[in-house]
Amino acid sequence: MNRQSTADVALRALRQTLLGPDTPPARPLLARWPRLARYAAPAGLLAALGLFWITLAVESEWGLPTPIAVLFAAMTVAPLLALPRRPLLAWRLTVLALLVCTFNAPAEQPGPWTAPLALGSIVVVAVVVARVDRPVLAWVVAITAVPVLTLVRPEDRAAVLALLGALAIVGDLIRRNRLSRRELAAQTELSEREQERRAVLEERTRIARELHDVVAHHMSLIAVQAETAPYRLTGVPAPAAAEFVAIAASARDALNDMRRLLGVLRSESSDPQTAPQPDLADLGAMVDAARRAGLPVTLDTGPLDEQRVPAPVGLAAYRIVQEGLANAARHAVGAAVRVTVRAERSTLAVRVQNAPPDDAGGRPGAEAVPGHGLTGMRERATSLGGTFTAGPLPDGGYAVAAQLPYDTEGGNP
After folding, report:
1. pLDDT tens column, 1-54
2. Exposed, middle or buried, 157 (CB in 10 Å: 0-12/13-18/19+)?
3. CATH superfamily of 282-359+371-413
4. Is the dihedral of CA 246, 247, 252, 258 positive or negative?
5. What is the pLDDT of residues 80-139, one digit of tens each?
6. Per residue in 128-183, pLDDT tens?
7. Cβ–Cβ under 8 Å, residues 328 and 335
């Protein structure tokens, strides 16, 4: 079984060596020096042209006919031209040139080949053995040894074979070193990504813990106090009791949203959320809740086809209106608020406008801590390719407006 496997590997390597696809191109030697790399191709062509003329001159001195001398010179240069991108092809052309270009060499010539062909063959073999795996390398060395044993003088064969073996050993070491460095770089990159992912998870866990310990705790206290206020306080009017109930419901809704957010932050996976997200159909319920909380707000949606507006656009519009109402409740106490949502041909226009507050100074402490509401609204709008504006009005009020584009045909923003 082992012998059969070894034979199969050897046959596959032989097919790869003689007829198989070439090795993938390696990183250019001058990749670190882009200014020099731009001159590599012209310099290489000039060098190849120089070798061509040198070979042609040498073989003409040997007395070869001009057509044969031109052919042999071309066969000498062709492997070097193919070497940068097609090393196996260059080696095949080199072996062919070593077998063919051996005619009419002078008796005093130390070898059967010209100096350019001999030196070029050494360069080609050195590059190839550093680019192929061991089975293919073994066939490359064995096949290259054929013209050496056939054509080189007996007294010179040992030296040439020793040079060929040294090239094979050094090339294999270079290839293994390159593979080791590549694997080390891949492992280092993987470790860095794992460290980054762990850092992100730790930060998300820390944020979730802070949200739970601070925000969720206070929201729970608000909900409990609002629910128990009618029982702890005597003589609470019915409107005030209803107000406490609305406050408790809003606090519970905020806690539910907070729990979902904490689940996302503490989860290591990025699976899509399956819980339904609010959209334009929920605007009426949100406005009713704001009215129950004492905010005089009116909603103007006009002829709005909720099915035509994509879900991401509807969610962004809902959050912008939600934040706009929250800002109006904090910074313009008692002011009338008008929410306008209009679906145009390919744009959803959202506007939240409040009149001047009843108290010019606003609620005490309302402006003490700057928030991130406007930033969040702007990010939601721009993430969909839309626009967002916010600013005071001439009458003393304030307005935020967003244009959210969407594709009326594909249904995606």
Report:
1. 455 577 777 788 788 778 878 777 666 655 566 676 677 677 778 877 888 888
2. middle
3. Histidine kinase-like ATPase, C-terminal domain (3.30.565.10)
4. positive
5. 888 888 888 888 888 888 888 776 566 666 667 777 888 888 888 888 888 888 888 888
6. 888 888 888 888 888 888 888 887 777 778 888 888 888 888 888 888 888 888 88
7. yes
Beta strands 347-354; 398-405: pairing state = antiparallel
Domain ranges of the chain: 2-152, 282-359+371-413
